[in-house]
Specification:
The chain is built from 13 helices and 22 strands. By secondary structure, the protein is of the alpha/beta class. It has 3 domains: 147 residues, Alpha-D-Glucose-1,6-Bisphosphate, Chain A, domain 3, CATH 3.40.120; 196 residues, Alpha-D-Glucose-1,6-Bisphosphate, Chain A, domain 3 (3-Layer(aba) Sandwich), CATH 3.40.120.10; 85 residues, 2-Layer Sandwich (TATA-Binding Protein), CATH 3.30.310. The strands form 4 sheets. Strands 1, 2, 3, 4, 5, 6 and 7 form a 7-stranded mixed beta sheet that branches. The mean pLDDT is 97.
């Protein structure tokens, strides 16, 4: 009928032909349509990414949803943030984006929205239960196309970004869905733009579309240095995560991008709260305080963070993974195309090189995100045991999402991935030796319970 494992914490995702197919999308359309109808709602903005399987999956989803009496407003092939924009612009009750984000080409999936909020965790499981019961509402929905949303989106962003001077920037679209948008917006703003891999191609022929991994940013780094441009912007497969390289070709990691944006935000909005996830550097949290802001450490996951922002009325948040959310001058969802423009707006305010922006911060030594294989049915229990042991030994432990153990000169993190059978770790300290000591201390406890 449908494989339950494709319903993950934040979205639906699986290997096409093995775990997910056109019949799956037909059922997902019927399930989501019923979910909305049960709430007295009935309109869905529908879009899809550049994957080779997406057109067939879009059609199947639409067929299923229409049979529940929901109306489909099809915006076509778009980036995920453009689908979110369409929900807002067209005033639909919900949205569905057929995408597997930065997963390899053989995957596809679906992100579901209730308004601008994600349908995730228990709510997403609720859609699965509707499908498993097979108790669907019936009706005849109306289908219409709304590709004009693409131009409206470009117009909206271009009108809301003010550059003080043209900026020289290279955009690596990763052959994903961000490529058709960002270069056009930047040229409207009089920037000098070089495009790399900006033509959507679901086979991702040049490199995997994940701008948070250094090896996928090598071409962009070399191009920025060779052209003597000011920065490079990388986008992921569906355009909701950002990567940046400076004029020297050095990659900025997610919390550094967030830090640069936070300084600019706090200069205009002193005293405001900024949310960052548990994987972010101590430098970021310290820097927010130093620049008159209030840092809030919160769970990893774009759906979690969007919900918390709405709950508390917070305008700015971000994750190590490159998801950055701005309700300041914007609509509050994770949009790497818009965030890229805000980054370039900051660059336009000064002639100082991007490599100098955080040069005043103390040097910290940190690992990237590391993974330890652990079965899905055991990973949360392992983390809970490690967390309890550190607490029992008197350590300072934040357990909002796994266990982040703070030391006087660094920290270590272990959390269970919500999407794959792994434990996620990250470590940071004032010296490389101390970073490795903290890593060893945490890993010994992890391996005790694996």
């Amino acid at each position: 009928m449908i494989k339950s494992q494709i319903f993950r914490q934040y979205d639906i995702r699986g290997i096409v032909g093995e775990e997910i197919d056109a019949e799956s999308y037909y059922l997902i359309g019927k399930g989501f349509g019923t979910y909305l109808r049960q709430k007295g709602l009935s309109t869905i903005a529908l879009g899809g990414d550049a994957r080779l399987s997406t057109p067939e999956m879009l059609a199947s989803f639409a067929k299923g949803a229409l049979e529940t009496g929901c109306d489909i407003l099809d915006v076509g092939s778009v980036a995920t943030p453009v689908l979110y924009f369409a929900i807002w612009k067209l005033g639909t009750d919900g949205g569905a984006m057929v995408t597997a984000s930065h997963n390899p080409p053989q995957y596809n999936g679906c992100k579901l929205n209730l308004g601008l909020g994600s349908v995730f965790a228990d709510e997403l499981q609720g859609v699965l239960k509707i499908i498993q019961k097979g108790e669907f509402t019936k009706g005849e929905g109306k289908y219409s196309t709304h590709t004009e949303v693409n131009e409206q989106y470009i117009d909206y962003i271009a009108a809301n970004i003010k550059l003080e001077r043209p900026v020289k920037v290279i955009v690596d679209g990763g052959n994903g869905m961000g490529g058709p948008y960002l270069p056009e917006i930047l040229r409207r703003l009089d920037c000098e733009v070089i495009e790399m891999y900006c033509e959507p191609d679901g086979s991702f022929p040049n490199h995997h579309p994940d701008p948070t991994i250094e090896k996928y940013m090598v071409d962009l780094s070399r191009a920025v240095v060779a052209a003597e441009y000011e920065l490079g912007i990388g986008l992921d497969g569906d355009g909701d995560r950002i990567g940046v390289v400076d004029e020297k070709g050095k990659m900025l990691v997610g919390d550094q991008i967030l830090n640069i944006l936070a300084r600019d935000y706090l200069a205009q909005n002193p005293g405001k709260t900024i949310i960052a996830d548990v994987k972010c550097s101590k430098n970021l949290y310290d820097d927010i305080r130093k620049h008159s802001g209030i840092p809030m450490m919160y769970k990893t996951g774009h759906a979690n963070i969007k919900m918390k922002m709405k709950e508390l009325g917070i305008e700015f948040a971000g994750e190590m993974s490159g998801h950055i959310f701005l309700a300041d001058r914007y609509l509050g969802f994770d949009d790497a195309i818009y965030v890229s423009c805000r980054m370039i707006e900051i660059v336009s305010k000064t002639d100082a090189p991007v490599s100098s922006y955080l040069a005043d911060q103390p040097q910290m030594f940190n690992t990237p995100e590391l993974h330890i294989t652990c079965p899905d049915d055991r990973k949360f229990a392992v983390v809970a045991k490690v967390c309890a042991e550190f607490k029992a030994e008197g350590y300072d432990v934040n357990d909002i999402d796994g266990a982040r153990i703070t030391f006087s000169d660094g920290w270590g993190l272990v959390r269970a991935s919500n999407t794959t059978p792994v434990l996620v770790t990250r470590f940071e300290a004032e010296s490389k030796q101390r970073m490795n000591e903290i890593k060893d201390l945490v890993e010994v406890k992890i391996h005790k319970y694996l």
